[in-house]
DNA sequence: TCAGACATGTAAGTCGTTACATGATTCA
DNA sequence: TGAATCATGTAACGACTTACATGTCTGA
């Protein structure tokens, strides 16, 4: 028992700043998609349970006569629980790579089939890499200039919160570093593909 | 709908050779743990459903008065379903890296906390890398000599099946390549850790 | 005016993990 | 004789996905 990844992910995002369920979903989709995912079916019930446990509070936001919107704010207790979780040892993620499985199982078939699988993987990963590299370029320039790129800016200050230039620069730096992790991982996969094609006598 | 990863994983392993649920679990744990996992709670019901769907047959194995043991054999229809699945495009795995999440969320805390997280990741990954490298060494020697390493040999010919020297050498090669994938991935992560520590001013 | 984004939520179903239950055989 | 391994299975729970349902507001 006791995993509840969604719970801590949501709590952690709230530790950043107050947000609605919709905001959380968008932030994850736009900014964290290379290492995290969430869906509404998990987010809304989780927010509800956070309130029940006293880790967050909910209040309706009706600034400038906007539509119905519930903003969740982390409580002091929530902050504590979040920090405790962060300090806990992180279990290594269970690995389940479908392509590796297929490749492994392809050994009873003609080599052409194994080669086809690798080439598919290769072009798929290349697309993701191109995308990541574009994001990286934008972010790098932002870090250099001490600014936040526009798309992120919208996401990261939906709510009014005083942030020092320094804390935002740090956010940006860490954002960039997580992206680098994704890029490195894909590069390694692409190098592996080349290695495989060579080894199978392409 | 329609994912059923366990179903195709089990079917694919049976396409290799007839096995019992216990064999499958062991093979996955010992040999494929760097890219796959399964547990009994999924394996046994899956085997049952494969039989129901006519993709495998079950028969009791009582060779040499051994204990109760059910061996599952893939049917012709099963082979076809397996091959169809292999040919289907492989969706990229959903990513959920808890350490990346923690690292990202640590940006509102002192930098020492971010550093601690990375160091934890680093030593964890290093252990796995050492382990993989040991396996690689054994496998490389086996490939060079055209042999199968002992541990694998037991697993891979539990059942009597005529295999040419060539097909076994290919199995071994592909086995080695999947291991290389795991090694590359970890190396990339460790390089990233170094990059991060440097960037955070260690 | 109408498409698209904003916004919240539920229901049903699948998938996956963990813990438990049971018992046979082997080997030191 | 007792621990380890072989071997099969189930029940309960928890996690996750998908599809659906509903309605508002903004801007071209």
Keywords:
homodimer, 202 residues, Arc Repressor Mutant, subunit A, 2 domains, two-stranded antiparallel ribbon, 2 strands, DNA-binding
Structure described in brief:
Two copies of one chain form a homodimer. Chain A has helices at 5-16, 21-31, 40-52, 76-87, 98-105, 111-145, 150-156, 165-199; strands at residues 56-60, 70-74.
Structure overview:
- Two copies of one chain form a homodimer.
- In chain A, helix 1 (5-16) packs across helix 3 (40-52), helix 2 crosses helix 3 (40-52) and helix 6 (111-145) runs antiparallel to helix 8.
- Chain A is elongated.
- Chain A has helices at 5-16, 21-31, 40-52, 76-87, 98-105, 111-145, 150-156, 165-199; strands at 56-60, 70-74.
- The first copy, chain A, has 202 residues and is mainly alpha-helical.
- Chain B binds a DNA duplex (28 and 28 nucleotides) through helix 3.
């Amino acid at each position: 028992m006791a995993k509840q990844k969604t719970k801590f992910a949501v709590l952690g995002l709230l530790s950043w700043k107050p947000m609605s369920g919709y905001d959380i979903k968008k932030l994850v989709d736009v900014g964290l998609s290379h290492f995290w995912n969430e869906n509404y079916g998990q987010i809304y019930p989780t927010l509800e349970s956070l309130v029940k446990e006293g880790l967050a509070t909910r209040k309706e936001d009706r600034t400038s006569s906007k539509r119905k919107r519930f903003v969740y704010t982390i409580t002091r207790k929530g902050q504590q629980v979040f920090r405790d979780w962060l300090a806990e040892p992180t279990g290594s993620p269970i690995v389940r790579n479908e392509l590796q499985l297929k490749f492994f199982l392809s050994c009873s078939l003609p080599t052409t089939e194994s080669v086809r699988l690798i080439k598919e993987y290769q072009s798929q990963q290349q697309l993701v890499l191109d995308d990541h590299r574009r994001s990286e370029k934008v972010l790098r320039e932002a870090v250099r200039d001490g600014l936040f790129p526009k798309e992120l800016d919208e996401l990261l200050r939906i709510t009014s919160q005083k942030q020092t230039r320094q804390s935002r620069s740090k956010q940006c730096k860490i954002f960039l570093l997580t992206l680098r992790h994704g890029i490195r991982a894909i590069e390694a996969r692409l190098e592996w593909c080349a290695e495989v094609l060579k080894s199978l006598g392409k």
